[in-house]
Amino acid sequence: MGVSRSIVVVAVISGLVLGCSSGALIHTASRVDEAYTFTKSEPIIVALPDRPTEDDELFVDNIEVGFSDAGFTLVDDVAEASRILTFRFSKEGTANAWHEKTVHTGSIRTSWGDIERYQPQKVTWTDSGLTLIYAQMIDITDRQRSEMPVIWEAWISVKRDEYEKQPALAMKFLTDLYGKNEVRDLKFKPPFQSKDKKKKQN
């Protein structure tokens, strides 16, 4: 018996804490289980996360369209799928990050003079007003297993106003991460187009 997408529910990490470098327009990160190969031909079913938020429910169609447009093979019946794609989406995100810097902490007086003291300290900041996307691919080929392994996961963090201008661009960043181990800070803008190419499009 087929199981519709609406009742294929899996648990994902609910806490999203992403490092976002100061001044970066988009932060992307992904990791894979290197025991697997990754192609777009494996049949995938998209599932809402466990206890979905209103943002998740509104975003599910976007993620289906984005992955389909990128050439992934999506199915509607879990019996036909070998992988589940689930996600978390938030347009009200906050990212926390920290780095170390050396600060002057005073001086010590000795018989031969003062010695200045410097010590590394963690500096933290919070960046709010972010759109956050977290995606997770789960292997379900072995139906006898009690737990299905997560074989790929990816994170996207971008300023909310930038995301609202170009949501399809954020989705392209996400689909481009499939099957990769990578962490990058990138400019959130469309790829460069030559003037000749723009003329042909017009």
Structural class: alpha/beta
Order of neighbouring strands in the sheet with most strands: 3-2-4-5-6-1-7
Binned strand content: 35-45%
Give the SSE string.
EEHEEEEHHEH
- Identify the overall geometry: globular
Largest sheet: 7 strands, mixed
Radius of gyration: 22 Å
In total, the number of strands is 7
Number of helices: 4
Portion of residues in helices?
Answer: 10-25%
Termini separation: 49 Å
| Assembly state | single chain
Question: What is the average per-residue confidence, as pLDDT, rounded to a whole number?
Answer: 78
Low-pLDDT residue intervals, each spanning 5 or more residues:
1-24
Question: Could you characterize what this model shows?
Answer:
The protein is of the alpha/beta class and 202 residues long. It has helices spanning 54-69, 160-165, 167-176, 195-201; strands at residues 26-32, 43-46, 73-74, 83-110, 113-139, 150-159, 182-186. It has a 7-stranded mixed β-sheet with strand order 3-2-4-5-6-1-7. Strand 2, helix 1 and strand 3 form a beta-alpha-beta unit. Helix 1 packs across helix 3 (167-176). The longest helix has 16 residues, at 54-69. The chain is globular, with a radius of gyration of 22 Å. Mean pLDDT is 78; it is low at 1-24.
